[in-house]
Design goal:
Helix content: 25-40%
Mean pLDDT: 97
Shape: globular
Oligomer: single chain
CATH class: Alpha Beta
Bound molecules: S-adenosylmethionine
Number of strands: 7
Structural class: alpha/beta
Number of helices: 8
Strand content: 15-25%
Strand order of the largest sheet: 3-2-1-4-5-7-6
Low-confidence stretches: none
């Protein structure tokens, strides 16, 4: 961690980090009862989950734009969680939390069925080599899990700047229990701030593909 991440981690982690029972690895989640998020947030409100929240730019923007919604971000890289915590504290946001954990395991073990307003996964790791495609986040198993955790009408929003992954995402999502809200690609999700991943893709001449599917 850099000094500002270390400071954020030290001073603000208690307010924003949700501790969970672990499996065998440091970012795994042990099977357990789902978290009662209304206790965590001390209120009952619609809940969004973000998988791979990175440095928290989208999470913070969503939390700031929707004080009436709660959002939990899953991220496996501790310094990124520290950056997110620092940004949340700087804006004194109370409607966001982070979990240092694999987001798929987090959805499976910490989130009750039919409880989410939306799931966000922006610029998930592309895993370019074909022998690594099985590691991609947007898979049939993950889409089935997301569909189960969304409330009826809830939305799964994804974006990528890698065309082959975008096409694979669309194929997987079209075969999932979810329904495309658009006739093909979705318009850019206007609430999503421009992160370094999106900017890097655009600077390299790539197109950014958004998808939005509904349970
Ligand atoms: C390419 S970055 C995108 C970050 C952010 N969404 C953005 O748009 O700036 C992908 C992020 O997902 C995280 N990640 C990868 N696999 C994950 C998983 N299974 N659960 C949670 N986070 C994951 C990585 O550590 C990384 O921060």
């Amino acid at each position: 961690m850099n000094p500002s991440q270390e400071r954020a981690w030290r001073e603000h982690r208690a307010a924003y980090l949700v501790d969970v029972a672990r499996g065998t690895m440091s970012t795994s989640v042990a099977p357990q009862d789902p978290v009662d998020w209304s206790v965590v947030f001390a209120r009952s409100a619609p809940l969004i989950a973000e998988i791979g929240a990175g440095n928290g730019d989208s999470l913070v923007a969503t939390a700031a734009a929707h004080p009436d919604i709660d959002i939990v971000g899953f991220e496996v890289f501790e310094p990124s969680i520290a950056s997110t915590v620092g940004k949340l504290a700087a804006r004194q946001l109370t409607n966001a939390r982070v979990v240092l954990a694999d987001g798929v395991q987090g959805l499976r073990h910490l989130v009750a069925p039919a409880s989410l307003e939306a799931v966000h996964a922006f610029f998930p790791d592309p895993w370019h080599k074909s022998r690594h495609h099985k590691r991609r986040l947007v898979s049939p198993a993950t889409c089935a899990l997301v569909a189960d955790r969304l409330r009826p009408g809830g939305l799964f929003r994804v974006a990528t700047d890698w065309k082959d992954y975008a096409l694979a995402m669309r194929e997987v999502l079209d075969g999932s229990p979810l329904t495309n809200t658009c006739d093909g690609w979705a318009p850019r999700f206007e609430e999503r701030p421009m992160t370094k991943y999106e900017a890097r893709g655009l600077a390299a001449g790539r197109t950014v593909y958004d998808l939005c599917y509904r349970r």
